[in-house]
Amino acid sequence: MNQKNKGMFLEKILNRTIRVLWENEIAFIEKKSIPISIISFNKTTDNQVISKFKHHKSTVDYIGMYKSKFICFEAKTTNLDNLPMSNFKEHQIDYLNLIHNNGGIAFVVVYFSLYNEFYKVSVELIKEHYKQNKSLKYLTVKENSRPLSLEFPGYLDIV
């Protein structure tokens, strides 16, 4: 799997998950778009973007409401036996922590493709390892996070 498409499997699963939650009136969650403007694109080929402008830093991948609480989470995929902390931007950690500290629900969904396992990882665990370590080991996640099973028809029980 190439780097560009590494997270597409998890994104498809999460998009199906939020659709199931919405359709069953369990939660309202949506994927945030990246705040960019296209400056130019190649008109002679397949409209490939040549240059773009990012308006401001994006916060997290998903936001919404669950049981009258604000919910937000980031989605990360790794094909290693660890989650590199370089996959996170400091403002993402700060945002998740801010929501958590103000009574919201904030977490990270991690897919370890090497083991074909999904986990709901707490903000505290991410924050604890973000500045101290280069990565969060698979066994640390497994021992300190909630495993998420892929349910029929292809969604995760994230709430």
From TrEMBL:
GO CC annotation: cytoplasm
Annotated binding of Mg(2+), by residue: T59, D61, E74, Q92
Molecular function GO terms recorded: crossover junction DNA endonuclease activity; magnesium ion binding; nucleic acid binding
Compartments reported by the entry: Cytoplasm
Keyword DNA repair among record annotations: yes
Reactions this protein catalyses: Endonucleolytic cleavage at a junction such as a reciprocal single-stranded crossover between two homologous DNA duplexes (Holliday junction)
Alphabetically ordered keywords of this record: Cytoplasm, DNA damage, DNA recombination, DNA repair, Endonuclease, Hydrolase, Magnesium, Metal-binding, Nuclease
Gene Ontology terms describing biological process: chromosome segregation; DNA recombination; DNA repair
UniProt site (Transition state stabilizer): K76
Protein name: Holliday junction resolvase RecU
Lineage, highest ranks first: Bacteria, Bacillati, Mycoplasmatota, Mollicutes, Mycoplasmataceae
Gene: recU
